[in-house]
Amino acid sequence: MGNYLGIDVGSITTKMVIIDETDQVLSKVYLRNSGRPIEAVQQGMERLLAQWGEEIQIDGVATTGSARHLAASLVGADLVKNEITAHSIAVIDLYPEAKTIIEIGGQDSKVILLRHGVVVDFAMNTVCAAGTGSFLDQQAGRLGISIEEFGTLALKSNHPVRIAGRCTVFAETDMIHKQQMGHPVEDIVAGLCDSLVKNYLNNVCRGKEILSPIVFQGGVAANQGIQKAFEKELHTSLIVPKYFDVMGAIGVAKLVKKARPSQSFFKGVDLLRKTCSTHGFECNECGNQCEVVQLVINEQVVACWGDLCERYRKSQGLRDKVSL
After folding, report:
1. Strand 238-239 to strand 214-217: parallel, antiparallel, or no bridges (unpaired)?
2. What distance in Å separates the CA atoms of residue 129 and residue 109, rounded to the nearest whole number?
3. Which residues face 101 on adjacent strands?
4. Strands 214-217 and 100-104
5. Which of 88, 96, 168, 269 has the fewest CB within 10 Å, making it most exposed?
6. What CATH topology corresponds to 3-85+249-273?
């Protein structure tokens, strides 16, 4: 029986899962990046090993997320896939009849349209981060409540207030105004949930045909207030998967399992004992002025990206070992 590791490194959180040949999740890790994706990957690996020991056999590794290339070079991935593909595969295998995926993470949000198990359209937020996990964290802190209380508090509201949800600045300003007017916290929280859902549907979905069954995933799916607001606005119930917070990692783990690499590039547990860092600089050799990033492990450059002409990769004899 093989074991496969999926890693999803986003802007706010890092997610890791290990699945077996039957797609059962054997272990999962969910932690915050704190702006340090390299340290987060190392810490995630350390947590997995604490659960399974260094003797665990990993037969394939895949990465996704905004820092997927960095993570792939760091751990020695066999496969790299974008978030749309990763989240879609995870849902299609679990819910083959699903027609819409709502995914809201720490810093971005996306909608994926499925028809007969195939992705036919998708969209992501571009500028506005209203409704994402980081924004909700900030507003919970401003209201003096924990993010865990946020959703349950919204469910207690009988009269949600109207809050402008066009963007994070307007939403925050309007929320402060409602506080100063003396509205109860639960009504403000419920109103914020309603406005952020409308913002998502108007800006991310942009008139796309949102059909049921709808799967709601990403870290924000834990927020019952947001889920209720979606269900009220869409007039249908949402499916929240058991592993809603790590679906991207599950998706790429399934993909690398299907690819079945004959020999994995996984660097193993030695990663925890090495010094890893990145070095960035601007190349002035031509008009492109590329912003080049090098990954350095134990004072040796092991990966490089950003150089459009591949000048530095060629000079250092580096080759991509992953499938994009």
Report:
1. parallel
2. 8
3. 112, 215
4. parallel
5. 96
6. Nucleotidyltransferase; domain 5 (3.30.420)
The number of residues making up the chain comes to: 324
Residue pair 266/76 in contact (Cβ under 8 Å)? The answer is: yes
Measuring CA to CA, how many Å separate 167 from each of 20, 111, 135, 208, 264?
A: 42, 18, 10, 20, 44
Domain spans of the chain, in order of start: 3-85+249-273, 96-240, 276-315
250's tokens:
């599950």
Tens place of pLDDT per residue across the chain (324 aa)? 789 999 999 888 899 999 999 999 999 999 988 778 899 999 998 898 888 877 778 999 999 998 898 899 889 999 999 999 999 999 999 999 999 999 988 778 899 999 999 999 999 886 666 557 777 878 787 778 877 788 888 888 888 888 876 666 677 788 788 888 888 888 988 888 888 888 888 888 888 999 999 999 998 898 899 999 999 999 999 999 999 999 999 999 999 999 988 888 888 777 777 888 888 889 888 888 888 888 888 888 888 878 888 887 777 666 554 444
